[in-house]
């Protein structure tokens, strides 16, 4: 159990038998009336996001979530196999749990795997990854004034919009949260 005053981003709460991750929180002390905590919560299995308000000092049940850095090894059927870098245990994770992170997973890359009671809740990649472009159309000479973009396929098979000056074989940095081009690597 924890107080709503102890909430932090990323903390996992057990509310009415469901797991919710705190995305944002704000402690509000209005001029009139009692203080309260406004939160944005994300349901872990489904990804549904809700806003919930708690009275300040209210006790909430926290879930014991084990976050570990694991190495992605390979894909076996539909499952993604991760290895715990401390114990060398291999864990298969379903595609529904990995979600959009699968577009940026490279073999032998690290990811944070969160587990609760032996069940994998979610897989979290670093904020950005470096990927090599396997195919993109050539940029036309003189077509620079608009600062436009073009689609490029990276080594994981994902498509990223890149500036016109990027060519095949170049390494780029991609934001794993929204799939946008950040810079050359």
TrEMBL record:
For this protein, the record's InterPro entries field holds: Elong-fact-P_C (IPR015365), NA-bd_OB-fold (IPR012340), Rib_uL2_dom2 (IPR014722), Transl_elong_fac_P/YeiP (IPR020599), Transl_elong_KOW-like (IPR013185), Transl_elong_P/YeiP_cen (IPR001059), Transl_elong_P/YeiP_CS (IPR013852), Transl_elongation_fac_P (IPR011768)
Alphabetized PROSITE patterns for the sequence: EFP (PS01275)
Pathway membership of this protein? Protein biosynthesis; polypeptide chain elongation
Domain (Translation elongation factor P/YeiP central) spans 67-121
For the Elongation factor P C-terminal domain, which residue ranges apply? 129-184
Q: SMART domains attached here?
A: EFP (SM01185), Elong-fact-P_C (SM00841)
Q: What does the function comment of this entry state?
A: Involved in peptide bond synthesis. Stimulates efficient translation and peptide-bond synthesis on native or reconstituted 70S ribosomes in vitro. Probably functions indirectly by altering the affinity of the ribosome for aminoacyl-tRNA, thus increasing their reactivity as acceptors for peptidyl transferase.
Similarity annotation: Belongs to the elongation factor P family.
Annotated protein name in UniProt? Elongation factor P
- State the encoding gene: efp
